[in-house]
Amino acid sequence: MNFRARPRGRLPALPPRDQTAPVTAEASNHTARSAATVAGADRDVDAEPLFRFGLLADVQYADDDPRPQIDRYYRYSLGKLAEAITEFNRHELAFVVHLGDLVDHDLENLPPVLNLLRQSTAPVRQVLGNHDFLSRTGPNGVSAEADVFSAFGLERPYYAFDVAGWRFLVLNTNEVGVIAAEPQTERWLQGRQLLDRLAAEKRPNANAWNGTIGPEQTGWLEDQIEDAGTHGLRAAILAHHPVFPDHGDNLLDDHRMRERLPDFPALKVWFNGHQHQGGYGEHGGVNYLTLCGMVQTRRNAYAIAEVYHDRIEIIGFDREPTRTLKINS
């Protein structure tokens, strides 16, 4: 199976590990342990997961030269993604999800990435990120929302799907703010006012690359979580922007969101990308996991999640740490 799709420019091969970053014996063993855990060597044979799924974030491919000053290697993302898909295809996964920013700078960069994702033997779910809306050729530097939704094959930018006793809720956290709105429109002005208010409050996330969800999407989200609980399902959110802990890349109304979500006992996890260094926090019984961004550094980052009754094991590869997310009953 050939994963070496070529962009308009030359795609460099991923550099040897010793040319990318120092790797300690512990780090080298981490990858081996990760693979062994996925294969089942480190698990009790009587405790097989309910299901597994693949996690990716911020592939952010563009046919552009690297920007070492911010540690982003755009063209390398195709090789990294190919490596991740190859690993995913070694396992029986219920689905693979990419948590936003699949491309950067323009939708013209999307075809080679989608070609790679089509090689996945598991269905691929898409979350939209702020960079997915950027355009070098579109008016005001953004692509029309309808064009973005169509390019990603999305009938609507937020949606739900159920897997083995879980409901996954995909959000569009670019809805409110200035990310996807044309400048000087009413929607853009409302987003600008929100950013100005947050800046006056000296909130670290008062940045134009952050967004949140509007009232209609919020109502839909709450209805979906309540319905999941009514039917005995657990719920997980798949979004682009983080909510917890505090960070400059967080959802614009992160404080409101994380105070509201514990009111829904069915909700167990919020998965997201956007903050490329990754991270984890727990608040009010909800796990908040930020996946490392694949575009960041010359090293790779992705994960496989193993879902059990009482926990989710995050099996990290390369830069992505391995973690255990405890699930309260």
TrEMBL record:
Domain of life: Bacteria
Record-linked Gene3D superfamilies: 3.60.21.10
InterPro entries per record: Calcineurin-like_PHP, Metallo-depent_PP-like
Pfam families: Metallophos
Sequence segments annotated as region (Disordered): 1-32
Domain Calcineurin-like phosphoesterase stretches: 52-277
One Gene Ontology term of the molecular function aspect: ADP-ribose diphosphatase activity
Protein name listed in UniProt: Phosphatase
Originating organism: Microlunatus elymi
